[in-house]
Automatic annotation (TrEMBL):
It comes from the Bacteria. The modification N6-(pyridoxal phosphate)lysine is found at residue 182. One of its GO terms (biological process) is polysaccharide biosynthetic process. GO terms for molecular function: pyridoxal phosphate binding; transaminase activity. Belongs to the DegT/DnrJ/EryC1 family. Keywords: Aminotransferase, Pyridoxal phosphate, Transferase. InterPro entries: DegT/StrS_aminotransferase (IPR000653), PyrdxlP-dep_Trfase (IPR015424), PyrdxlP-dep_Trfase_major (IPR015421). The active site is at residue 182. This is Aminotransferase DegT. The keyword Cytoplasm does not apply.
Length: 353
Protein backbone atom coordinates (compact mmCIF):
# COMPACT_ATOMS: atom_id res chain seq x y z
CA UNK A 1 0.00 0.00 0.00
CA UNK A 2 1.22 3.46 -0.94
CA UNK A 3 1.60 6.11 1.70
CA UNK A 4 1.25 9.52 0.09
CA UNK A 5 3.02 12.58 1.35
CA UNK A 6 -0.24 14.47 1.38
CA UNK A 7 -3.90 13.88 0.74
CA UNK A 8 -6.08 17.00 0.78
CA UNK A 9 -9.31 17.11 2.80
CA UNK A 10 -12.14 15.94 0.59
CA UNK A 11 -15.02 18.36 1.18
CA UNK A 12 -18.36 16.68 2.06
CA UNK A 13 -20.16 16.85 -1.29
CA UNK A 14 -23.69 16.88 0.15
CA UNK A 15 -22.92 19.92 2.26
CA UNK A 16 -21.02 21.53 -0.58
CA UNK A 17 -23.97 21.13 -2.94
CA UNK A 18 -26.25 22.90 -0.44
CA UNK A 19 -23.89 25.86 -0.36
CA UNK A 20 -23.59 25.94 -4.14
CA UNK A 21 -27.39 25.94 -4.44
CA UNK A 22 -27.39 28.93 -2.11
CA UNK A 23 -24.89 30.68 -4.41
CA UNK A 24 -27.17 29.98 -7.34
CA UNK A 25 -30.24 31.28 -5.49
CA UNK A 26 -28.36 34.44 -4.59
CA UNK A 27 -27.01 34.71 -8.15
CA UNK A 28 -23.90 36.13 -6.51
CA UNK A 29 -20.69 34.28 -7.39
CA UNK A 30 -17.91 36.56 -6.23
CA UNK A 31 -17.17 40.12 -4.99
CA UNK A 32 -17.66 39.71 -1.22
CA UNK A 33 -20.84 37.60 -1.27
CA UNK A 34 -22.76 35.96 1.57
CA UNK A 35 -20.57 32.86 1.85
CA UNK A 36 -17.47 35.03 1.81
CA UNK A 37 -18.92 36.96 4.75
CA UNK A 38 -19.85 33.76 6.63
CA UNK A 39 -16.40 32.25 6.13
CA UNK A 40 -14.72 35.48 7.26
CA UNK A 41 -16.76 35.58 10.47
CA UNK A 42 -16.31 31.89 11.25
CA UNK A 43 -12.55 32.00 10.62
CA UNK A 44 -12.12 35.11 12.77
CA UNK A 45 -13.98 33.40 15.62
CA UNK A 46 -12.19 30.08 15.14
CA UNK A 47 -8.70 31.50 14.87
CA UNK A 48 -9.17 34.27 17.45
CA UNK A 49 -8.27 37.15 15.13
CA UNK A 50 -9.73 40.39 13.80
CA UNK A 51 -9.36 42.13 10.45
CA UNK A 52 -9.16 38.91 8.43
CA UNK A 53 -9.34 39.46 4.68
CA UNK A 54 -9.93 36.46 2.41
CA UNK A 55 -7.90 36.43 -0.80
CA UNK A 56 -7.40 34.14 -3.80
CA UNK A 57 -4.15 32.49 -2.67
CA UNK A 58 -1.27 32.70 -0.21
CA UNK A 59 1.08 34.29 -2.73
CA UNK A 60 -1.15 37.29 -3.36
CA UNK A 61 -1.77 37.46 0.40
CA UNK A 62 1.94 38.25 0.82
CA UNK A 63 1.93 40.76 -2.03
CA UNK A 64 -1.19 42.57 -0.85
CA UNK A 65 0.03 42.63 2.76
CA UNK A 66 3.30 44.24 1.62
CA UNK A 67 1.43 46.81 -0.50
CA UNK A 68 -1.07 47.64 2.23
CA UNK A 69 1.80 48.28 4.65
CA UNK A 70 3.64 50.39 2.00
CA UNK A 71 6.69 48.14 2.20
CA UNK A 72 9.91 49.07 0.44
CA UNK A 73 12.89 46.72 0.85
CA UNK A 74 12.28 43.43 2.61
CA UNK A 75 14.52 41.28 4.82
CA UNK A 76 13.42 37.66 4.74
CA UNK A 77 14.30 34.04 5.37
CA UNK A 78 16.18 31.74 2.97
CA UNK A 79 14.39 28.71 4.46
CA UNK A 80 10.79 28.71 3.29
CA UNK A 81 8.71 27.94 0.22
CA UNK A 82 10.02 30.01 -2.71
CA UNK A 83 6.87 32.20 -2.80
CA UNK A 84 7.81 33.90 0.49
CA UNK A 85 10.57 35.78 -1.32
CA UNK A 86 9.65 35.47 -5.00
CA UNK A 87 6.18 37.00 -4.53
CA UNK A 88 7.84 40.13 -3.16
CA UNK A 89 10.62 40.23 -5.73
CA UNK A 90 7.99 39.86 -8.47
CA UNK A 91 6.26 42.91 -7.03
CA UNK A 92 9.46 44.94 -7.28
CA UNK A 93 10.58 44.96 -3.65
CA UNK A 94 14.28 44.74 -2.97
CA UNK A 95 14.86 41.46 -1.12
CA UNK A 96 17.71 40.68 1.28
CA UNK A 97 18.14 37.39 3.09
CA UNK A 98 19.15 36.90 6.70
CA UNK A 99 20.13 33.45 7.94
CA UNK A 100 18.03 31.15 10.10
CA UNK A 101 18.44 30.04 13.68
CA UNK A 102 20.21 26.67 13.73
CA UNK A 103 17.73 25.12 16.17
CA UNK A 104 14.29 26.29 14.99
CA UNK A 105 15.25 26.77 11.30
CA UNK A 106 13.18 30.00 11.42
CA UNK A 107 14.60 33.45 10.61
CA UNK A 108 17.08 34.36 13.38
CA UNK A 109 15.31 37.38 14.82
CA UNK A 110 18.13 39.53 16.30
CA UNK A 111 20.20 39.33 13.10
CA UNK A 112 17.22 40.16 10.89
CA UNK A 113 16.35 43.18 13.03
CA UNK A 114 19.95 44.37 12.90
CA UNK A 115 20.08 43.96 9.11
CA UNK A 116 16.84 45.84 8.47
CA UNK A 117 18.10 48.66 10.72
CA UNK A 118 21.43 48.91 8.88
CA UNK A 119 20.15 48.98 5.32
CA UNK A 120 18.84 52.12 3.67
CA UNK A 121 15.50 51.59 1.98
CA UNK A 122 14.67 48.42 3.94
CA UNK A 123 11.68 48.72 6.24
CA UNK A 124 9.99 45.30 6.40
CA UNK A 125 10.76 41.89 7.85
CA UNK A 126 8.98 38.90 6.32
CA UNK A 127 9.41 35.80 8.47
CA UNK A 128 7.87 32.36 7.96
CA UNK A 129 6.58 30.13 10.76
CA UNK A 130 8.20 27.18 9.00
CA UNK A 131 6.16 23.96 9.28
CA UNK A 132 3.80 25.82 11.64
CA UNK A 133 6.54 26.37 14.25
CA UNK A 134 6.27 30.02 15.39
CA UNK A 135 9.21 32.35 14.96
CA UNK A 136 10.51 34.11 18.06
CA UNK A 137 7.41 36.32 17.94
CA UNK A 138 7.78 37.68 21.47
CA UNK A 139 11.34 38.87 20.88
CA UNK A 140 10.39 40.43 17.55
CA UNK A 141 7.41 42.15 19.15
CA UNK A 142 9.57 43.52 21.97
CA UNK A 143 12.40 44.68 19.70
CA UNK A 144 10.54 45.74 16.55
CA UNK A 145 12.20 49.00 15.49
CA UNK A 146 9.91 51.95 14.87
CA UNK A 147 9.26 52.45 11.18
CA UNK A 148 9.78 48.73 10.50
CA UNK A 149 6.81 46.48 9.74
CA UNK A 150 6.71 42.76 10.34
CA UNK A 151 4.79 40.38 8.10
CA UNK A 152 4.57 36.73 9.07
CA UNK A 153 4.13 34.17 6.34
CA UNK A 154 1.82 31.92 8.35
CA UNK A 155 0.94 29.64 5.42
CA UNK A 156 1.75 26.62 7.62
CA UNK A 157 0.51 27.97 10.95
CA UNK A 158 -3.28 27.58 10.78
CA UNK A 159 -4.67 27.19 14.31
CA UNK A 160 -1.34 27.60 16.13
CA UNK A 161 -1.34 29.52 19.41
CA UNK A 162 1.50 30.99 21.44
CA UNK A 163 0.65 31.03 25.15
CA UNK A 164 -3.05 30.90 24.25
CA UNK A 165 -2.78 33.82 21.82
CA UNK A 166 -3.26 33.19 18.10
CA UNK A 167 0.10 33.30 16.37
CA UNK A 168 -1.68 35.36 13.69
CA UNK A 169 -2.04 38.31 16.09
CA UNK A 170 1.72 38.94 16.15
CA UNK A 171 3.29 41.35 13.69
CA UNK A 172 1.53 43.93 11.52
CA UNK A 173 0.10 41.27 9.22
CA UNK A 174 0.06 37.48 8.94
CA UNK A 175 -0.68 35.69 5.70
CA UNK A 176 -2.29 32.28 5.27
CA UNK A 177 -2.49 29.88 2.35
CA UNK A 178 -5.63 27.79 1.85
CA UNK A 179 -4.15 25.80 -1.02
CA UNK A 180 -5.54 22.26 -1.38
CA UNK A 181 -2.35 20.82 0.12
CA UNK A 182 -2.70 22.85 3.33
CA UNK A 183 -4.36 21.45 6.42
CA UNK A 184 -7.34 23.78 5.96
CA UNK A 185 -8.18 24.57 2.35
CA UNK A 186 -10.51 26.31 -0.07
CA UNK A 187 -8.91 24.56 -3.13
CA UNK A 188 -6.95 27.76 -3.85
CA UNK A 189 -7.21 30.63 -1.42
CA UNK A 190 -5.70 32.46 1.47
CA UNK A 191 -6.17 35.24 3.98
CA UNK A 192 -4.39 38.16 5.58
CA UNK A 193 -4.88 39.04 9.25
CA UNK A 194 -3.99 42.65 9.92
CA UNK A 195 -3.22 44.13 13.30
CA UNK A 196 -4.82 47.44 12.34
CA UNK A 197 -8.23 48.04 10.75
CA UNK A 198 -6.77 50.84 8.61
CA UNK A 199 -4.47 48.35 6.85
CA UNK A 200 -7.35 45.90 6.41
CA UNK A 201 -9.37 48.69 4.75
CA UNK A 202 -6.53 49.56 2.37
CA UNK A 203 -6.03 45.89 1.46
CA UNK A 204 -9.74 45.34 0.87
CA UNK A 205 -9.66 48.16 -1.70
CA UNK A 206 -6.41 46.89 -3.26
CA UNK A 207 -7.75 43.37 -3.91
CA UNK A 208 -10.75 44.81 -5.74
CA UNK A 209 -8.79 46.96 -8.25
CA UNK A 210 -8.74 49.92 -5.80
CA UNK A 211 -11.36 51.49 -8.03
CA UNK A 212 -11.88 55.22 -7.67
CA UNK A 213 -9.26 55.65 -4.97
CA UNK A 214 -6.31 56.92 -6.93
CA UNK A 215 -4.41 53.72 -6.04
CA UNK A 216 -3.23 50.89 -8.26
CA UNK A 217 -5.01 47.70 -7.30
CA UNK A 218 -5.27 44.09 -8.37
CA UNK A 219 -7.94 41.40 -8.46
CA UNK A 220 -7.20 39.05 -5.57
CA UNK A 221 -10.68 38.28 -4.26
CA UNK A 222 -11.87 34.89 -3.06
CA UNK A 223 -15.01 33.72 -4.85
CA UNK A 224 -18.16 32.10 -3.45
CA UNK A 225 -17.29 28.57 -4.62
CA UNK A 226 -13.99 28.73 -2.78
CA UNK A 227 -15.72 30.11 0.32
CA UNK A 228 -18.22 27.21 0.13
CA UNK A 229 -15.38 24.66 0.25
CA UNK A 230 -13.93 26.55 3.20
CA UNK A 231 -17.23 26.52 5.11
CA UNK A 232 -17.60 22.76 4.58
CA UNK A 233 -14.01 22.00 5.56
CA UNK A 234 -14.22 24.23 8.63
CA UNK A 235 -16.93 21.92 10.03
CA UNK A 236 -14.35 19.15 10.52
CA UNK A 237 -11.29 21.24 11.26
CA UNK A 238 -11.13 20.37 14.99
CA UNK A 239 -10.98 16.71 14.03
CA UNK A 240 -8.38 17.38 11.31
CA UNK A 241 -6.16 19.32 13.70
CA UNK A 242 -6.38 16.81 16.52
CA UNK A 243 -5.74 13.83 14.24
CA UNK A 244 -2.78 15.47 12.50
CA UNK A 245 -1.33 16.59 15.82
CA UNK A 246 -1.65 13.04 17.13
CA UNK A 247 0.26 11.72 14.09
CA UNK A 248 2.88 14.46 14.58
CA UNK A 249 3.34 13.47 18.24
CA UNK A 250 3.63 9.80 17.26
CA UNK A 251 6.37 10.62 14.75
CA UNK A 252 8.14 12.74 17.37
CA UNK A 253 8.03 9.99 19.98
CA UNK A 254 9.35 7.38 17.54
CA UNK A 255 12.05 9.46 15.83
CA UNK A 256 13.33 12.01 18.32
CA UNK A 257 16.33 9.91 19.31
CA UNK A 258 17.33 9.06 15.74
CA UNK A 259 17.03 12.34 13.85
CA UNK A 260 17.38 16.07 14.34
CA UNK A 261 13.99 17.73 14.69
CA UNK A 262 13.42 21.49 14.48
CA UNK A 263 13.14 22.86 18.01
CA UNK A 264 9.53 23.94 18.57
CA UNK A 265 8.66 27.28 20.17
CA UNK A 266 8.32 26.38 23.85
CA UNK A 267 4.99 28.16 24.41
CA UNK A 268 3.35 27.20 21.13
CA UNK A 269 0.72 24.60 20.32
CA UNK A 270 1.19 22.27 17.37
CA UNK A 271 -1.02 21.79 14.33
CA UNK A 272 0.54 18.79 12.58
CA UNK A 273 0.95 20.72 9.32
CA UNK A 274 4.19 18.92 8.38
CA UNK A 275 6.61 16.47 9.92
CA UNK A 276 10.23 16.88 8.91
CA UNK A 277 13.46 15.25 9.98
CA UNK A 278 17.01 16.50 9.74
CA UNK A 279 19.33 13.67 8.67
CA UNK A 280 22.94 13.39 9.82
CA UNK A 281 24.16 14.06 6.26
CA UNK A 282 22.84 14.44 2.72
CA UNK A 283 24.16 10.90 2.03
CA UNK A 284 22.02 9.53 4.82
CA UNK A 285 19.06 11.42 3.41
CA UNK A 286 19.56 9.89 -0.06
CA UNK A 287 19.69 6.41 1.44
CA UNK A 288 16.50 7.03 3.41
CA UNK A 289 14.75 8.47 0.37
CA UNK A 290 15.54 5.35 -1.67
CA UNK A 291 14.36 3.05 1.12
CA UNK A 292 11.10 4.97 1.44
CA UNK A 293 10.58 4.84 -2.30
CA UNK A 294 11.17 1.09 -2.38
CA UNK A 295 8.45 0.78 0.24
CA UNK A 296 6.02 2.97 -1.73
CA UNK A 297 6.26 5.81 0.76
CA UNK A 298 6.48 9.36 -0.58
CA UNK A 299 8.80 11.97 0.92
CA UNK A 300 9.85 15.44 -0.20
CA UNK A 301 12.82 17.76 0.30
CA UNK A 302 10.91 20.71 1.77
CA UNK A 303 12.42 23.34 1.25
CA UNK A 304 15.40 22.63 -0.94
CA UNK A 305 17.14 24.54 -2.44
CA UNK A 306 17.56 27.44 -0.02
CA UNK A 307 15.79 30.44 -1.55
CA UNK A 308 18.87 32.69 -1.56
CA UNK A 309 20.62 30.26 -3.92
CA UNK A 310 17.81 30.87 -6.44
CA UNK A 311 18.27 34.64 -6.34
CA UNK A 312 21.01 36.33 -8.34
CA UNK A 313 23.66 38.06 -6.22
CA UNK A 314 22.23 36.94 -2.87
CA UNK A 315 24.73 36.21 -0.11
CA UNK A 316 25.26 32.65 0.96
CA UNK A 317 23.34 31.57 4.06
CA UNK A 318 25.42 28.80 5.62
CA UNK A 319 22.99 27.62 8.30
CA UNK A 320 19.96 27.48 6.00
CA UNK A 321 21.96 25.83 3.22
CA UNK A 322 23.23 23.20 5.64
CA UNK A 323 19.77 22.45 7.02
CA UNK A 324 18.08 22.17 3.61
CA UNK A 325 20.71 19.74 2.39
CA UNK A 326 19.62 17.24 5.07
CA UNK A 327 15.91 17.87 5.45
CA UNK A 328 13.19 15.40 4.56
CA UNK A 329 9.45 15.88 4.86
CA UNK A 330 7.50 12.73 5.74
CA UNK A 331 3.90 11.77 4.94
CA UNK A 332 1.32 13.45 7.15
CA UNK A 333 -2.33 13.98 6.33
CA UNK A 334 -5.85 13.57 7.69
CA UNK A 335 -6.42 10.16 6.09
CA UNK A 336 -3.26 8.55 7.48
CA UNK A 337 -3.33 6.18 10.45
CA UNK A 338 -0.98 5.73 13.39
CA UNK A 339 -0.08 2.37 11.84
CA UNK A 340 1.02 4.20 8.67
CA UNK A 341 3.28 6.43 10.78
CA UNK A 342 4.74 3.36 12.49
CA UNK A 343 5.43 1.80 9.09
CA UNK A 344 7.25 4.93 7.89
CA UNK A 345 9.32 5.08 11.09
CA UNK A 346 10.30 1.41 10.81
CA UNK A 347 11.70 2.00 7.29
CA UNK A 348 13.53 5.11 8.51
CA UNK A 349 15.17 3.37 11.42
CA UNK A 350 16.25 0.43 9.27
CA UNK A 351 17.77 2.63 6.57
CA UNK A 352 19.55 5.11 8.86
CA UNK A 353 23.32 5.07 8.32
C1 LIG B 1 5.43 29.21 3.30
C2 LIG B 1 4.54 29.40 2.12
N1 LIG B 1 4.33 30.66 1.67
C3 LIG B 1 3.52 30.90 0.62
C4 LIG B 1 2.89 29.88 -0.04
C5 LIG B 1 2.06 30.19 -1.24
O1 LIG B 1 0.71 29.93 -1.04
P1 LIG B 1 -0.23 29.62 -2.30
O2 LIG B 1 0.18 28.31 -2.87
O3 LIG B 1 -1.61 29.58 -1.67
O4 LIG B 1 -0.09 30.75 -3.24
C6 LIG B 1 3.07 28.55 0.41
C7 LIG B 1 2.41 27.40 -0.19
O5 LIG B 1 2.19 26.97 -1.17
C8 LIG B 1 3.94 28.31 1.49
O6 LIG B 1 4.18 27.06 1.90
Amino acid sequence: MNINLNNPIKPDLKKLTKYLEQVEDNAWYTNFGQLHQQLTERLEAYLGVQNLLLVNNGTSALQVAAKALSANGVVTTPFSFIATASALKWQGHKVLFSDVDGKSWNLAAPEAIELVNQQDGFDTIVATHVYGNPCDVELIEAQQPSGVNVIYDAAHAFGVRVAERSVLTFGDASTLSFHATKLFHTVEGGAICFKKKEHFDIAKRLINFAQHHGEIGINAKMNEYQAAVGLVNLDIIDDVLSHRTHLFETYTRLLKNDFILPEWHDKASKNGAYFVIGCASSEERSKIESALQENNIQSRRYFEPAINTQFEDADSMPIAEDRVSKVLCLPLHYYMTVQDVERVCKVLKESKL
